[in-house]
Amino acid sequence: MLGSSIIRAQQIAEYLGAKYNPRSGWENDVCIWVKPDLEAESAYVKTAGSKTYLDMIDYSRYVHWLRDHPDERGIVSSQFAYDILKEEMPGRIVLIPQQHCNFENFVRRRKKIANVGVIGSPRSFKYPLAEIGKRLEQIGLRLITNFNFQTRQDVTDFYKKIDIQIIWYTRRMFLKTPLKIINAASFGIPSVAAPHDGYKEVDDYYLKARTIDQLISEVKRLKNPQNYKAATKNLLGMAAKYHIKKIAKLYKQLV
Predict the structure, then answer these.
(1) Domain boundaries, the chain
(2) pTM greater than the 0.85 cutoff
(3) Per its UniProt record, what Gene3D superfamilies does this chain match (predicted)?
(4) Distance from the first to the final alpha carbon of the chain
(5) 26 three-class SS
């Protein structure tokens, strides 16, 4: 199962006690379709109407589909995408951010800064990771990656092991979301990342690096306890807004 399906469908349905992929009995309900098939005979296309929402996540094909179907409504998960699409499709776009993975509110307590983490898919980090690993070793840090997670527990276990997160996604993509930054922040872990428009709502909550040299430099600075403390002092408060108990309330407002 794709990560987006777990986060936006399975986790939310379980938390709200909603139906998850029901075979019947949903025709008159408010329905949220997460990355559905858009073929003419697909269940979503055949039943789309006033009580359905298309959750686009990061798939631009759905934006084009909504443009061609002015009676349909969509859900986006980043402020940047919402600000663009609400002007283009007034009254049809809803912003529901992704909830972070840390339902239990576990907080990093280690004093030693030793592990730098990359999570997602190998393609999402747009620089050779072998070289990143070598450069981190040169400053006394170890690179930990997770490209194989299957469950929320896999993701939380990863964050419990790391002290700094690095993100290097440099492609322009207006549906890009800041979930990785929020996930790390929920554990009190700072992120160093290439700036991205999709991170608009967390702009003050990550360290920006415009080059790989700068990324390594910012990571090195975080080895200093005072710098680390300064970079993390407001993270938990920000991430609290994205706990599933807060995000679930936004789904209940859909009509």
Answers:
(1) 3-96, 115-240
(2) yes
(3) Glycogen Phosphorylase B
(4) 28
(5) coil
Looking up tokens 């936006």 gives 8
CA distance 214 to 193: 10
Q: Identify which has the larger pLDDT, 97 or 24.
A: 97
> Are 68 and 49 spatial neighbours (Cβ–Cβ below 8 Å)?
no
Bridge partners of 119, per DSSP, are 146
**How far apart (Å, rounded) are the C-alpha atoms in residues 98 and 76?**
9
Q: Which of 209, 124, 117 is nearest to 157 (CA)?
A: 117
Q: Give tens-digit pLDDT for 12-69.
A: 999 999 999 888 887 788 899 998 888 866 778 777 666 889 999 888 889 999 999 9
pLDDT at 187 over 90: yes
Give the torsion through C-alpha atoms of 95, 167, 102, 152, to 10 deg.
Answer: 90
Tell me the residue type at 122.
P
Helix, strand or coil for residue 51? Answer: coil
Least confident of 6-20, 32-46, 90-104, 180-194: 32-46
- Cα–Cα distances in angstroms (integers) from residue 196 to residues 87, 112, 173, 223, 244, in the given order: 21, 29, 9, 24, 24
The two structure tokens encoding residue 232: 């993390």
Amino acid at 207: L
Query: What CATH number does the domain located at 115-240 have?
Result: 3.40.50.2000
